[in-house]
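Anyone up for a design puzzle?
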């Protein structure tokens, strides 16, 4: 795969990961009611996300309510919120920076080395964005798992399990890190040739002084 095609593939994968991370952050399905156990004790399905909680009745009616107080939220929700916001900001700046540094754009064509370095910087931003998304989703999933398996008087079919937004977040982090890694492979060609020339010329120069 050529450098330009690799950059384009990495950019498209990273943008898809950023859009998926945005969808995961907005969706109220980070955890949902568990239907494990012998019987379903309620006809209402509960879903909770970072910003709101929803109740879906068996009739199809869905009611959602935003989390009113920030300080009253649990620590893992606040931390996941902050990490997802940071991830989206890093991905947004990565989209802008990568467009400037990609070979298929006309910006900065007179200096291809600097242009490639800008593409690498955009790739680093995408990788950091993916890591933040991965940390947020994994932290939330760890808390859901802990609450599900801990000893409690709450019956197992009244507890919560993983929601669909967690899987969307894991997929988003994978795409962002994959796309960022491909962009980071855009090593400046001129700089590599210069380094190879310096390595080849150093031994001959040393022999001349001897």
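Challenge accepted. My sequence:
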């Amino acid at each position: 795969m050529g450098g330009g095609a690799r950059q384009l593939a990495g950019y498209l994968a990273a943008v898809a990961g950023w859009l998926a991370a945005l969808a995961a952050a907005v969706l109220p399905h980070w955890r949902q009611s568990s239907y494990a156990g012998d019987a379903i004790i309620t006809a209402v399905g509960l879903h909770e996300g970072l910003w709101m909680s929803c109740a879906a009745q068996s009739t199809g009616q869905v009611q959602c309510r935003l989390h009113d107080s920030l300080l009253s939220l649990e620590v893992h929700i606040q931390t996941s919120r902050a990490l997802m916001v940071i991830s989206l900001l890093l991905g947004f700046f990565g989209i802008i920076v990568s467009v400037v540094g990609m070979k298929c754009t006309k910006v900065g064509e007179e200096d291809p080395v600097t242009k490639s370095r800008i593409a690498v910087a955009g790739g680093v931003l995408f990788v950091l964005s993916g890591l933040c998304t991965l940390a947020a989703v994994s932290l939330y999933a760890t808390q859901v798992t802990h609450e599900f398996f801990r000893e409690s008087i709450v019956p197992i079919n009244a507890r919560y399990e993983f929601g669909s937004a967690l899987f969307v977040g894991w997929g988003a982090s994978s795409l962002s890190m994959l796309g960022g890694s491909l962009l980071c492979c855009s090593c400046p060609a001129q700089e590599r040739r210069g380094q190879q020339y310096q390595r080849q010329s150093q031994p001959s120069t040393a022999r001349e002084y001897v």
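A detail worth pointing out: The beta strands are 31-33, 44-48, 52-57, 62-66, 160-162.
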